[in-house]
Amino acid sequence: MTLKLSKSDANFIQQLPVCRLATVTKECEPVVRPVWAVFDSVFIYFASDPDTPKLEHIDENPQVSLVFDDYERENWSNIKGIRIQGEAEVLWEGEEYRYGHELLKEKYPEYRTPDGSWKEGDVPIIKVTPISYAKWVQGSWK
Question: What is this structure's pTM?
Answer without folding.
Answer: 0.91
